[in-house]
User: Fold this.
Amino acid sequence: MSNPSPRKPPTWTVLDALQWTAGYFDTHGIDSPRLTAEILLAAVMETTRIDLYMRHDQPLAGEELAAFREMIRRRVRREPVAYILGEKEFLGRSFTITPDVLIPRPETEHLVEAALERLPEDDGGSRKILDLGTGSGAIVVCLAAQRPGNRYFAVDRSPAALQVARKNAAVQGVARFIHFFAGSWLSPVNADCAGFDMIVSNPPYIPSARFGDLQPEVGQYEPRMALDGADDGLFAISQIVCKAQDYLLAGGFLLMEIGWDQKSAVENLCLEAGGYAPAEFVRDYGGHDRVAILQKKPVPALDVLECS
Assistant:
């Protein structure tokens, strides 16, 4: 199918293509070679993985084979499947994905779920929620879809990423609930328009020195500015923790995805900021502390002097 040339049958059937591609991926160190082959071929044939096996003896048309070959070449170069397909599923929803945005990951689902737990459903109130570094918009779109009665604001410094986020919001039918702004973290937010009930973010948190250890799919293809947290990985996190307290209502929440080993550092940042209750943490599927939950302290009640 591609160099090195296999000993191929006269006509490629679905099963021929899957078997050869799975072996080719395996020899090139691609994770889940059979699954990857199924996903790519199903996309080419505009069908499901299960249906591939119902049509296992169907010959591939010339244009299908050509498209599949190109996908194989891209994957062997370690390009992520999400970029090859241009989409990624997140919490049961399909999101458009381009190399301008970070690929949504299962770890971030915990952030969305923790946010939803703290957003009452259908209580008649309209809350203000801010998503910092929105990227593909996966977080804010899922929140708006599940809690449509609120007002949502999303910020990203990449105009290209905002274009992707707007498209995803439109496709998911929640564009009317979300206001998008270009800028770095809280800089586009007017202090007079503060008073958020919740701020969410998946900021860059990988230390710069660790980039050489990342898988090629991440280090070579995903946008570095969405991953690189500077020397200790805490540059963006520390900025957000310090400033978010000035934009939250008393009792409001700041939820952030963090690195697996950053719990203690985030606890210290929370204490230094002074405006939060002790931080809570949610663990990911691997048992790592992955989501930090900071709640702004309530305004202390004033003592009232009663006169008789």
